[in-house]
Amino acid sequence: MNVKELIEQLQDMNPEAEVHFAYGYGDHWRTTVAPAASRVFQGQVQYSEYHRMDKMVEDEDDDSYEETGDYRTDVRRVVIID
Fold this sequence. Notes:
Layout: H1 3-10, E1 23-24, E2 32-33, E3 40-48, E4 53-57, E5 76-81
Antiparallel strand pairs: 1-2, 3-4, 3-5
């Protein structure tokens, strides 16, 4: 999903509704939890083979930059809902 698609979907929602995000908790019962979202920000991610999904990359993480100071091609800038 990109920001444009998110905006399109949100246009039909109640603007006073709370915002939560859902994910599988990873417990025995396969519970899906939905904590409240507290902020929206731009961040960096890269795919993690260990987690089999994207993980956050911090700005000060030396591994996120090439020797030239540019972001590595596998590091992507994204919008994050936290």
